[in-house]
């Protein structure tokens, strides 16, 4: 039995190993993308502490739009932290963000997401930088399926069948030779990281294959609709934005301040509020995680709330939200992010140590 499992483990690891190293290494980098961005570019995310009140939102957006001759604000996100900048999503371009001083209206920086380092890392992670997002996406998806099988077969091979082997199965022999240490690193660290890596693999497949996503939905009795993951953070297509442009007419039509005041009355304790032309997305302070947002739709004429989509009542958004935070490791704050980062680094090393052991075995046979 173990001989067959070893064969499966070997046959799947050889073609998928390099891709899995890339996926795990880029995934490790993406765990701390927000923190790295804030560390490298603090002026984009923070302003000096002041006793001054933020500008009224209508005035703020008018000032910002005057600094954007070929663009305008489509959405704006406000944090419940007086030292944080406001972040606007612009109408023209894909996920183009403007970082704004909420006290002066100064545009501190403009960042098109597709031109950032982390977009390139994400593109490598998800599609192997395949601009068509077809072949590369398929390769990473199939490799991730292989990863699931490799982790399960690896755990079966690692599991000690005798009590006296337990110690050797959970420790790395420090005084052993290089090759033995490498074997222990592959076996022991792989076992320690296996549960986290399985979680990352099973959640990652949600972005790879619709059939898998739909199957998971059926397991939880959830009908999956078309669209992106992420609990309400997906942006509309350019065509949809243009339709909204016509509908809104101009920014003077949108009563930003009235919308903000209405939301603050409804949710006085919030982490952030993101306002659009006819909706507001709110992350309450007591939200379970960063994707547990509530969405308020406004009547364009009366500026009153006409409907609310609470995260807790929407099964698909709940599932997508949990898939996202489990995949990124953000569900438990810094602690789970660090655990996820370490597991991803270990995952990136497993194919390398595996290749080394395979090459060594081939050399021994030819001696």
Notes on the structure:
The protein has helices spanning 2-31, 33-40, 42-45, 57-66, 117-127, 135-158, 166-170, 178-204, 210-219, 238-248, 256-266, 315-328, 334-365, and strands spanning 73-79, 86-90, 96-100, 107-112, 270-275, 279-284, 294-298, 305-309. An eight-stranded antiparallel β-sheet has the order 4-3-2-1-5-6-7-8. The protein has 367 residues and is an alpha+beta fold. Strand 3 and strand 4 (107-112) form a beta hairpin. The radius of gyration is 25 Å and the shape is elongated. Helix 1 (2-31) runs antiparallel to helix 5, helix 8 runs antiparallel to helix 12 (315-328) and helix 8 packs across helix 13.
How is this structure best summarized?
This protein is α+β, with helices and mostly antiparallel strands. The chain has helices at 2-31, 33-40, 42-45, 57-66, 117-127, 135-158, 166-170, 178-204, 210-219, 238-248, 256-266, 315-328, 334-365, and strands spanning 73-79, 86-90, 96-100, 107-112, 270-275, 279-284, 294-298, 305-309. The protein starts with a helix and ends with a helix.
């Amino acid at each position: 039995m173990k001989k067959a499992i070893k064969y499966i483990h070997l046959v799947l690891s050889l073609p998928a190993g390099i891709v899995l190293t890339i996926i795990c290494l880029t995934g490790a980098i993406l765990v701390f993308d927000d923190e790295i961005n804030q560390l490298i570019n603090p002026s984009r995310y923070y302003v000096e502490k002041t006793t001054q009140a933020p500008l009224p939102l209508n005035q703020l957006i008018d000032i910002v739009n005057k600094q954007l001759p070929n663009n305008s604000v489509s959405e704006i996100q406000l944090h419940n932290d007086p030292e944080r900048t406001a972040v606007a999503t612009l109408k023209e371009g894909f996920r183009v963000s403007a970082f704004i001083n909420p006290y002066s209206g100064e545009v501190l920086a403009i960042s098109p997401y597709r031109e950032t380092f982390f977009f390139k890392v994400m593109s490598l992670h998800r599609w192997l930088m395949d601009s068509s997002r077809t072949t590369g996406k398929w390769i990473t998806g199939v490799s991730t399926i292989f990863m699931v099988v490799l982790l399960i077969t690896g755990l079966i091979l690692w599991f000690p069948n005798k009590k006296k082997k337990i110690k050797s199965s959970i420790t790395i022999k420090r005084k052993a030779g290089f090759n033995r240490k490498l074997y222990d690193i592959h076996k022991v660290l792989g076992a320690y990281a296996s549960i986290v890596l399985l979680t990352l693999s099973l959640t990652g497949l949600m972005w790879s294959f619709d059939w898998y996503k739909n199957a998971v939905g059926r397991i939880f009795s959830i009908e999956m609709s078309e669209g992106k993951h992420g609990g309400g953070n997906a942006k509309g297509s350019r065509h949809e934005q243009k339709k909204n442009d016509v509908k809104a007419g101009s920014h003077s039509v949108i009563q930003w301040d009235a919308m903000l005041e209405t939301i603050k009355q409804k949710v006085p304790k919030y982490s952030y509020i993101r306002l659009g032309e006819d909706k507001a997305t709110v992350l309450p302070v007591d939200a379970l995680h960063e994707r547990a947002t509530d969405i308020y739709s406004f009547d364009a004429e009366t500026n009153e709330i006409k409907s609310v989509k609470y995260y807790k009542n929407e099964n698909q958004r709940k599932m997508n939200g949990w898939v996202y935070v489990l995949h990124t490791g953000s569900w438990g704050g810094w602690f789970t992010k660090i655990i996820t980062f370490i597991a991803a680094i270990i995952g990136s090393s497993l194919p390398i140590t595996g290749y080394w052991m395979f090459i060594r075995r081939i050399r021994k046979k030819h001696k």
